[in-house]
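== Protein entry: sequence and backbone fold ==
=== Local backbone shapes as whole numbers ===
==== Amino acids and backbone structure tokens ====
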Amino acid sequence: MKSPGEESVPFSAVFGLPAEVGLRRAAVALDLSPTTAYRRARRGDFPCPVRRPGRRYVVRLPDLMRALGIQDVRVRYDDVEAGARFAGGEADD
């Protein structure tokens, strides 16, 4: 059985990042102009998978992070708490 401190969560969840972002935000992250981003999404060659629920384009955050070379690692809750204490200037016992 795991203790509460051994439970882990994806890094993106620690910071409350959204599950998906709009194409414009993804374009900014990938250093693409909006025009280029929409053109590439329509052609099917955007740097990461794009979904189209209704009329707008969206990109799943894990796919965008992967395209940017950012690994969404799992972190332990106790490590997050220790980091917050350290950032707040508390000494670690």
